[in-house]
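Form 7-S
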Amino acid sequence: MRKSSCSMRFYEELNDFLPQERRKVCFSHDFQRRASIKDMIEAQGVPHTEIELILVNGCSVGFSYIVQDGDRISVYPMFEAFDVQSMIRVRPYPLRISRFVLDVHLGKLARYLRLLGFDTLYRNDYEDAELAHLASKERRILLTRDRDLLKRSVVTHGYYVRAIDPRRQIEEIIERLDLHRAIQPFQRCVRCNGRLAATTKQQVWERLPPETRRCVQEFWICETCEQVYWEGSHMPHIRRFIQALQARASAVSSAEQMIEGAE
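Output:
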């Protein structure tokens, strides 16, 4: 069988998935078998969920496109500064509500997301197939440190988390998915993801430490696991962290208003 060849170039953060010698350069890729562009891209290590636009010989194509000998392929991640909506052929419609399911490596990130009010499923014993099924069936965004998990065809919305530190991870997710305005803190149990409801001191009296009984007046309880919450000494630090995340939304809004006013 005659060998065919195409040229490929990946842009911006998609280079994170490539070997060093193929980053930020155009490289040749040889192939013999008929293959879709989705399969060829993922063979390079880049999950399809990270891609927004594919150009072949200057024209936008979808994942089902069959690569031809001599094709020039350019692959792009999500655009933040340019409107390319009319060109997009690969990205699914965004989900109306951002809900998540996380893999075994992201337990602390799950707690951060729940703290900020996001519906977040996490267990340390989820199998890969179960994660993919939950993401597809419940229309959740799959967050993972396993790029092969994002290559499963049933996963339509997913993201490979680059940061290692949990605090940097939550900052990355909020920024990347533009979730600043969707933050509604202290609505969910960080332990089980259940909804929180206000309760009285009398109802939870037996479960409170002596000092808390004397000094605290407001309490909340998880409607699912019945974990009790109140504002402790760590709350000012948590509030400052949340305010810093939300401040980014105000900065973006101000910039958008300036741009609109100049048009």
